[in-house]
Amino acid sequence: MAKNIHFELQKTRLCAALIQTWILGDISLFEELKSALSKELGNGWSLMSALQFMSGKAAKAALDQSNPEDQVLLLITHQVAKEVCSKYGLSNVDALTEADQAEFRALVMSVKNRQ
């Protein structure tokens, strides 16, 4: 089971990096990360599949297993992916809720309190 969690966390980090680079508009890094994603996960992986994966429960479970400093950025990316997929019908997820926002605020406060 630990190996599966490790793989899911690796996949989560790869997908998150691609989405973050897309948001920032760094075309050359985006292409590099897209190639890395395809190499690691298979040719069928793209920005759309990364958004779909990051919006789902497997990515959420994996990011919950990451270290607290990584969790904030991964959770932001999860929530962005969830919102994009919900808004454009890319996957069967609900739009962000108050509970999602509260989870993010609690995580940020938790990290701040550790510093």
How would you describe this structure in keywords?
115 residues, mainly alpha, globular
3D structure, described in words:
- By secondary structure, the protein is mainly α.
- The protein has one domain.
- The protein contains six helices and no strands.
- The chain has helices at residues 2-24, 27-41, 47-54, 57-64, 68-88, 98-114.
- The longest helix is centred in the N-terminal third of the chain and has 23 residues, at 2-24.
- The protein is globular, with a radius of gyration of 14 Å.
- The model has no long low-confidence stretch (mean pLDDT 91).
Distance between the termini: 31 Å
Strand content: under 5%
Shape: globular
Q: Which structural category do the helix and sheet elements fall into? A: mainly alpha
Give the low-pLDDT segments.
none
Radius of gyration, taken over Cα atoms and rounded to an integer in Å: 14 Å
Largest sheet: none
Q: What is the number of strand segments?
A: 0
Q: What portion of residues is helical?
A: over 70%
**H/E series, N to C?**
HHHHHH
How many structurally independent domains? 1
Question: Mean pLDDT, as a whole number?
Answer: 91
Number of helices: 6
